[in-house]
Write a structure and sequence with these properties.
This protein is mainly beta. It has one helix and eight strands. It has a single domain, classed as Thrombin, subunit H. Strand 3 and strand 4 form a beta hairpin. The mean pLDDT is 90.
């Protein structure tokens, strides 16, 4: 898998967040939903991580190698404004070089 940067994942544990750093392919996607009540942004990011990356739905992710230990989500959100992981899909098939974990976050 080719990567274009580094990512930081804050994985929730029993009493805070563990911080992990991975090479990643980060692609921002911008979109808008138009409904009767108005227009809303649905900006997200599509991120490819190594297949063995520790990440789960509800974790936080940010582009770049960030050394920060967070005790709570509110503390983390104030300090770095990371995106929240909404979906995660492990692609552990095919060539070993192509295996990856696909994450979407908003």
């Amino acid at each position: 898998m080719r990567y274009n940067g580094e990512c930081t994942v804050w994985h929730k544990n029993g009493n805070g967040y563990d911080t992990y750093h991975y090479p990643c392919w980060w692609q921002d996607t911008e979109a808008e939903n138009i409904s009767k009540s108005g227009k809303t942004d649905v900006d997200t990011a599509l991120i490819h991580l190594p297949v063995n990356a520790i990440a789960a739905k509800g974790d936080y992710i940010s582009s770049g190698n960030i050394e920060y230990t967070a005790a709570s989500a509110s503390e983390l959100l104030k300090a770095h404004k990371p995106l929240k992981v909404t979906t995660i899909s492990r692609k552990a098939y095919g060539s070993e070089h192509m295996q990856h974990t696909e994450v979407t976050a908003r």
